Amino acid sequence: MRRFPAVVAAVSLFAIALTGCSSAASTNGSASCTREQSSSTAATDLVTVTGEGGSEPNIDVRTPVYTSQTEFVDIARGEEGPTLVSDTQAAILDFVLLDGVTGEVVATTEYASSGNQPAIVSSLYGALPGLEPALECATGGSRVVAVLASDDIAPDSAQSLGLGEDEALVAVVDVQKVYLAKAEGTEQFAEGRGLPTVVRAPNGQPGISFPDHDAAVPDAAVSEVVIRGDGAEVAADDSILVNYTSVDWDTREVQQTSWGAAPQALDMSTVPAEIADALVGQPVGSQVMLVVPSDPASGLEQSLIYIFDILGIDDFNA
Questions:
Q1: pTM to 2 decimals?
Q2: What burial letters (b/e) apply to 21-37, b meaning 16+ CB within 10 Å?
Q3: For the chain, does the N or the C end have fewer beta carbons within 10 angstroms?
């Protein structure tokens, strides 16, 4: 019987909802990310997985399976692309969890053929900490088999899944898609025009530097590409995943940011025209700065600077 205990619900709660929001850049996110395998496979060797990657797998477990140390191995590796490098990163994951002693399925996701929404992987890692090293540097299209030691399963999750003391958990995870953790591409020459400069922390989080505290706000919305990515171009009817920061031009204070929390999904058909104009046509991986002057007549009391990192494109409405 298929069950959806708290460990699955926890991941679902972090699914990214659509919103109509009123230094040198790395050229390859996987360049410094090396996919490792467990030094021991005694436990994972007891798990046989068949079936096409991306669809619900057939799993046979030679029970009982015990391990004092979490093990993981790749059944399939995805093609080159964004890799899982951050616990605040978004991905589309499906998985089947089995009791290591009985071999029975204790939880599984829907394995929907379309319409899967991305979720922040920290939700899964919080429930099953052993999956964090098991999925580190994984790419979309990968299938990973992991056997989690009891110490690598959160107590609440073990109880929810009906696991006994010291019981292992078998996990088969299909990494359907991984989204960029930050903008990646080619740094663009700043055009000036009295606009602020974008600076970045090592994790890619942007900040704003003003060349002149008394610089005048542009009379109309103006955008500038800071990093040009090399992914697919955003279309006018796309839904995209972004990290963003908005800063008040006058006070220099951050008004909102998704950094440190969760990326946001934006529907290009419903966002304000200034945002759509700035992002449509830009390739995935780009970082775009947008300055929108105040317009009290339309309810915008502040002049705002937006910094968008375009992390991926998807049809979240499917």
A1: 0.88
A2: beeebbeebbeebebee
A3: N
